[in-house]
Specification:
Elements (H helix, E strand, L loop, with lengths): L9 H18 L10 E9 L6 E11 L2 E6 L6 H8 L2 E6 L2 E11 L2 E4 L8 H11 L5 E7 L4
Antiparallel strand pairs: 1-2, 1-4, 2-3, 3-7, 4-5, 5-6, 5-7
């Protein structure tokens, strides 16, 4: 929660300006190593209001064929709202685009995403659901090419 003295649109303006600088560099492969388990990605989602492509740089953790991203901003993060409405997305890592389906875990429950999981994914989603009860949102990006 932001302090009351902060302008209501400050958070949105701040992240848009930051993302405008970071996004092109990460999408091209800079600061987005494929070999490390953690790093920056650019998530490309469909705008929940406009239907236009939206790109957001995010920190991610690779766990096998999955990428996990999170935010403490909850559903104030537009990329979360976008994925809830349209869970098919792309993300860029190492300069390459990868198609993925998003599993959005919010308020301790799966808000959107597949309901039948591959082996191992159900335990991961259950663990993230426990953490998401405390205001965080987790998204598991399941690469479409790996199915």
């Amino acid at each position: 929660m932001l302090p009351q003295w902060v302008a209501p649109d400050f958070e949105q303006r701040f992240f848009r300006r930051l993302n405008a600088v970071v996004e092109p560099a990460v999408r091209s492969g800079w600061a987005s190593p494929v070999s490390l388990p953690g790093g920056l990605i650019v998530l490309e989602s469909t705008g929940f209001k406009t239907g236009k492509r939206r790109r957001t740089p995010l920190m991610s953790v690779r766990l096998g064929c999955y990428r996990i991203v999170s935010t403490v901003r909850g559903d104030r993060a537009y990329w979360v709202k976008n994925l809830i409405k349209q869970p098919r997305a792309r993300y860029f890592v190492g300069g390459k685009a990868r198609k993925a389906d998003a599993i959005v875990v919010i308020d301790g429950e799966v808000a959107v995403g597949q309901r039948s999981y591959k082996r191992g994914l159900s335990a991961l989603v259950a663990m993230l659901s426990t953490c998401a009860k405390h205001g965080m949102v987790f998204v598991v990006l399941d690469r479409a090419e790996d199915r």
